Structure formats: C-alpha cells, structure tokens
Amino acid sequence: MNTGVNRLNSTFMRYHIETREAQWRFKLPPKFRVKIYNNCVNVQECVQACVYNVHRVGEDGRVAEPVEELCRGCHRCTLSCPKGAICVELNPAFERLGDSYFTPERIENIFFEAETGRVPVSGAGYGGAFSGRGFDSFWFDFSEIVRPTRDGIHGREYISTSVDLGRKPHNLFFDDSGNLVSKVPENIEIPIPIILDAPLSSSSKSNLNLALAKSASILNTFAIVSADDYSDDLSDYGSNLILRIGPNEARKVAGLIKTSPIVELDYADNALDENRITDDLRFVRKVNPAALVSARFLGEDSVTEKSEASVKVGVDMIHLHVEDETVVHDPDVVKRIIRGTHTRLVERGIRDQVSIVFSGGIAEAAHVPKSIILGADAVAIGLAYEIALGCKVCHGSKHEAGCPLKVEEGDVELASQRIVNLVGSWRDQLLEVLGGMGLREVRRLRGELGRAIFFEELEMKIFGDEDDSE
Ligand SMILES: [Zn+2]
125 in helix, strand or coil? Predict the structure, then answer.
C-alpha cells in the first residue's frame, strides 16, 4: 500500500507507466465503409496497393471481404482498381458518434489510446481546427524556447510531470534554538497532473469504482469516490482515494474521513457560505489533521468569489468542476473558469496557498497542458475514461439507458488497464509538449499564458477591434 512517505520517495525514481494492449469487447463502428462490387475481376491490384492490409487474398484465391476497421481512407485501392470496383466512403454510423464537442475523431483517439497506450499518429502537421472556442481557441507556442527542445518521451533528460496537491510552503518560522515552529503545510506530490473523477451513475458503478481505484494505485495518483459508494473492496486502495462528501454529510462519515488522505467537500448545489465551509473544514481537521481538504464548486456562477473565500478560511485545494454538457454548448466556459480563478488568487497574493484541480470538457490529451496554461495545477478526467469503456457520451448525472458502457466483475482488470493506457498515452503527449517548449517540469507551465497563442488575440492583431469598424 502506498503511503504519503513512499509517494515522496518515488519522485527520485523515473516515473514510468506500464501500458499494454487491452482490447475491449465493445468496438466502435469503423470510420470507413469499404465495398467491392460484382464487377471485380480479381486482378488483386488493391491487395498490392493497400499498405494497411484492408484488402487480402482469401483461401479461395480471390480478393476477400475488406477489413474495414483497418482502412484509413487513403483511396489507393480505389485508384488502383482497373474496373473501378471499389468504393470507400465515410461510415454514417461513425459520423453519428458523440456530439459537436466529443467528436467522432476524439472518441476514436480515446479508444485507440485506451487500447494501446500509444500516441495516435495524425499524419504530417497539425490536423485540428485553426479557429474555434474553448480549448480549441488557443495553441501551444513552441517558439519561445530559451534552450533547445528536449526529447520528450525518449529523452535522456528526465522531464518531470509531477505536481503538488495542497498548499506550498510559504514562510517558515523558527524559534531561538533553530527549531521549526510553524506547521509545515501539508501537500501531496503526484507524478502526473491527472486524477480520476468519480463516474456517473450506472449499473456498473461499483465495478467501475474498483477499476478506477486500481488504476489510481498503479498510476500513483488519486481517484475520487463519493462517500455513498465506499465499499470494503476499495479499502486496499484507501491511500489513492479522495473521499467526496456532500453537504451535511461530514459528521455521518467521520470513520472514512479518518483514513482518507484527501477529503473533498462538494458544494455543487450551494450558494457561497463561508460559515459552512469553515464549519466543515474544522470538523475534518479535528477528525483527521493530516488530510488535505478540497472544496469542489460546480459551474461558473461566482466561482472566483467562492474560491477566494475558501482559500481564506484555509482549504488546501479547489476543485473547479463544470458539467461536460455545459462545455459542449459553451466551450469558452473552461477559459473563463480556470483563468478567472487563477488570476483572482494571484492578484490576492494567495495562489500558492492552494492547488487548483479542473474538470469538465477534458476530451483529449492536449486539454491537460491547456488547462495548466490557463492556471490549473491538475485536471480530473471523467467522461474521457467512460468513453474508453464504451460510453456513447452521456451527459447529466447518469448514463442513459442503452449506453454500451458496462464493466462486469470479470472486466475490472481490463477496464483498469484501459484507464492506465489512456493516462499513459496522455502523459506521453504531455511530455512531447513540455519537450517542445524546452521545459524540464510541468509545474513551470502553470498560468504561463505566454506559452500559448490565443485566437482572439491573433484576430485582434490582424483585423483590429471589430466594434470600431461599425
Ligand atoms: Zn454513457
């Protein structure tokens, strides 16, 4: 079992995530439909032309049914066929996956990352949009390097992706004989800026919670578990769990608080009430003085005020959460929430008294460093790992009836490996970003807006303020 002490010691070793192939029984529909028509004369040019092995020769010596899952839509086969007998087209079932934000391509990438632990290859150049909203409205700026780039994944130099949860030491006070008198602030270092948020409600929830706890333990990070969902199965993973408790729940779960390294007070449905937070905080501190205490807020409404007030009463962490559905309709909300809160705490000179975790709308690897550039210390992923386990992108508090996400008891190990693979792939992509910027540690990226190019600023620079032209 991991203890806080081991966690610290582990930072002197190279952190490595062990990934391995993890096929899920649920498959995505293939991106392309490949049809061979009856006028095929079996010259097998397509077999020669295809570098992805979509076209093969069957046992009967004739061109076999195409393996659609392998098709990348390069059309070499259609061009090579002298009879024009092959048709490659986008599969409507694939196009219907997800929504405008959790797009079919993002879902396909998550599935690939969870299955292989590898970084998806997008081909030459940047394949994404050149303008957009939210996380899509800014790009990494690799031009501002003060030293050569570092080789991210395979480099000989170690790039640290560790971050601290909790407060940073500020001033230490010593008595006349040189003994430390001020309490050293508690913080816990995790080797990746990613924690696992609690899953939506579903019939698989208890198995999924167990898979998440196992993944968190393998990754040496944390999984958030609601107090209602605690079971004996999870007790082996206690040092990797964040206990989430709802309003007025603290006193009912004192036993769990006592053994939890981090306690998250969920104020999702509550207006700002400093007295409530102070009261809950005192209770948790009394029961477990060593635990870090996190305050979780939902949405954008007065979140900067709530965060500032919480830091002032002494919480160690702020968890800013926004519903994925809100991000789908208003992608810019992520920028306003993270940047707004980070900036407010910096202005008040209290930013280092707390760490900020952000969750909501984290749909691809790049969203992790982008959240950090906006001012978060770490992110919590939720829907991304559920998509990796088959979720068809459900919003709200529970999975829709008919959602293919299902984790049977026998699937727990496999589900856990897929989550580990997903995080492993995202960490490799984070290393590439840090390497490209010449950064030796991810902590240096926090709030570094100069490391990004913002679309609205580019637009302003090129076209000027549109309002002036009216
Ligand atoms: Zn679902």
Answer: coil
CA of 259 to the centre of ligand 1 (A): 31
* Domains in the chain, number: 2
Amino acid found at 337: I
Residue 48 sits in a domain whose CATH number is 3.30.70.20
Q: Is 76 left (phi over 0), alpha (psi -120 to 50) or beta?
A: alpha
Q: Is the same domain home to 418 and 443?
A: yes
Q: Using the mean position of ligand 1's atoms as its centre, give its distance from the Cα of residue 394 in Å.
A: 4
Tokens of 382: 């939720």
Sign, CA dihedral 428-434-437-440, equals negative
Angle value at C-alpha 94, between 78 and 211, nearest 5 degrees = 130
- Residue 232 Cα, ligand 1 centroid: separation in angstroms? 26
pLDDT tens-place string over residues 314-325:
999 999 999 999
By residue range, what is the domain housing residue 70?
32-94
- Distance of CA 398 from the midpoint of ligand 1 (Å): 7
Please write the tens of the pLDDT for every residue from 83-118. Answer: 999 999 999 999 999 999 999 999 999 999 999 999
- CA distances to 143, 200, 212, 245 from 226, in Å: 43, 11, 13, 6
**How buried is 299 (Cβ within 10 angstroms: 0-12 exposed, 13-18 middle, 19+ buried)?**
middle
Non-local (6+) Cβ contacts of 195 within 8 A are 216, 221, 222, 223, 224, 242, 357, 378, 379, 380, 381
Nearest CA among 259, 256, 241 for reference residue 196: 241
**Which of 462, 435, 353 lies closest to 150, judged by CA?**
435
For residue 264, the CA-to-ligand 1 centroid distance in Å is 24
What residues are paired with 34 via a beta bridge?
88
CA of 407 to the centre of ligand 1 (A): 12
Residue 324 and residue 419 share a domain: yes
Q: pTM of the prediction?
A: 0.90
- Rounded to the nearest angstrom, the gap between the alpha carbon of residue 301 and the centroid of all alpha carbons in its chain is 23
Q: What is the CA radius of gyration of the chain?
A: 25
